[in-house]
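The data layer described in this paper is built around a simple, fixed record for each protein. Such a record has a labelled line for the sequence and another for the backbone structure tokens. For reference, a complete record is included directly beneath this paragraph.
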Amino acid sequence: MLRSIIAAIFIQTCLAGGITVNPVPTDLNQLNQKLSEEVSHASVDLNGKGADLLINYSSPAPLSVYILFLNEDGSVNPRDIVSAQLPKGEVESVIPLSQTRGWSLGERKYKLHMITEKNIEPSISKLKLEGSPSLADGLKQFFALEPFTPSSYHRLSGYKFFGISFTLLLTLTLALALALTLIFRKKKHAMTAIIILILIFNARFSLDLLRYTKENLTAETYSTAGSAYQIADYFKSNGIKDVQLCSDGNTYFPTILKYAGYPLNIPDESEHVLVRNAYEWSFENGNLTCGELNAPATSLMEFPDGSILFKLSK
């Protein structure tokens, strides 16, 4: 396994090929699915402060690094998880963290999951945080996509600038502007500044709304609900009242599906099976395998979010 990663953290070697790999947002389901596969895996806790994560390593196979930003109590905001795909070879890599949503100034706790091919043991010679964020990093963090569910705006995390809540910065700026208005009586200029700041904040959120709207319209899905409403309409129009669900275990989708398809039931067994985001499943030669299910079936319908409806053969 990858236990040699931790033991070799402080071993210095001569590595070649310095690269910068920008991290990308990753959800917890992707990490869990990766861990469920036959891979070599190790995790390590890392404390420190710095804008960049430096990883010097040697590996005969590509290395996937999943970065979790830990709160003081050890909990994780799953919407702040990022990952980076590092190439094989002897590599000096830099992963910029200060432009990601979960990063903030000062000491931070991280949990790193390092995953590679089965029976591969990379050697890590350096694993540390260092560097200071630039103005460009602060702006990139501010313009990072705000993850949200259209039907649940209370879950918004808000925008950040160098790890500081932009809502807080905006509030303090408005309070200062109001104070200056009362002191210097220059209400015209202060009110203009206040209106401009509010418009900038609203325009920033509108940008994310347009991003999500474009993505959903193109894919014909509805955010994290996927094709739940299309699937429910299909069930109603075809008289399907019971369906067995084979998925990743997330409770959000079946809740939405039952709501949209009322009085739809989702029992443990049914002649109709909906496969959605399942970690391990297959449909070969007319036989459906998903979890504990293994039976002959017929594919009835595939939906835009990748969900597939099957009917078991009697």
